[in-house]
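Q: Please design a sequence for this.
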């Protein structure tokens, strides 16, 4: 696997819908043979949790800065 397009500090990773996701302040997705950026989260993250249920990813806690942490949902589209 090639290096990420941007460093990811405090990131979490998971597989969903056949894609490999790395979620930190940015969302990185590995598909087929390269990385690309995924959808932006409402709240930048570090030290969070990622849970995959039925191919839907939930990003929980770990807000960076003064923004309140909220659970966000990402639905991979293969």
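A: Design:
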């Amino acid at each position: 696997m090639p290096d990420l397009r941007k460093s990811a500090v405090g990131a979490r990773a998971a597989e969903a819908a056949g894609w490999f996701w790395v979620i930190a302040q940015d969302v990185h997705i590995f598909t087929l043979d390269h990385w690309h950026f995924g959808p932006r989260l409402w709240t930048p993250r570090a030290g969070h949790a990622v849970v995959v249920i039925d191919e839907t990813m939930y990003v929980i806690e770990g807000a960076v800065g003064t923004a309140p942490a909220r659970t966000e949902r990402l639905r991979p589209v293969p």
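Q: Thanks. Anything notable?
A: The chain has a mean pLDDT of 83. Residues 14 and 21 are 5 Å apart (CA to CA).
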